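Researcher: Next entry in the queue.
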Amino acid sequence: MNQRCGEFVAKDPGIHSSCTMKAMILAAGLGTRLRPLTDSVPKALLEVYGRPLLAWVVDRLALNGFTDIVVNAHHHAEQIVAFAEWYPDHAGIEGLRMAVSLEEDLLGTGGGLKQAEWFFDDDQPFLLHNADVITDVDLQALAHKHLESGALATLAVKKRDTKRYLLFDEEDDLCGWQSTEPAETREVRKPSGQTTPYPFLCVQILSPEVFNTMNSPSPYSLIDAYLAAVAGGHRVTSFLAPDARWMDVGRPGHLEQVAGLFGDRYFEALLARDRDSG
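Model: Structure for this entry, 278 residues:
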């Protein structure tokens, strides 16, 4: 893997990397859990702390050096397109560029990434982030871990209560998947030592070689793509973020709770950085 972008040196935590990397934000979902709010607005444009979810995610990615961003869109896609055309000129973030990957039919997280392969036209690793996730995971440390590992993908994880887990061995490498409801375990390769179940935070860094492993007909999930890649001999590793705050804002009630979890400082700091960088 080419590592021309191996240096990530921030002036302050979470602000401006010395290297620019591309990113994709997954925003094509129907947002069924948030109906009727999503009947007329895509989930990614629902507001938190007075601004669209997508704006907060774009801001944080761009201010960490991920300034070339593609967003996939399906549900009310024209609103996502309008946002992507308008926001770079109004965000106050130097060098921010946005594109949209339109999905006529929902392709799943794996199929959606595969369709956007055209955007990643170089040999550099890139970030993938869900539009409905608010978190303070250290993106630069995640990128460092990936560049050092040589893995196909590096997934941010932490202990939390959920019903779906990824299984990692003592080398931090993915070896399977586990569900508690219904009870099911899939092991796709023999682990090195004991396995530990970790919930996925829906934030990851990938090498472009991942596209060569994605041959399933859409729709399909990114997790299925990772498990298939591991079964085929590729390495997918974990980045443990035990202290990171995280919330899936696509769940009922979480839109109102997220400000309380992160506090005013999280959102106000991003707004201040927008002004400082403009």
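Model: The mean pLDDT is 86.
Researcher: Noted, moving on.
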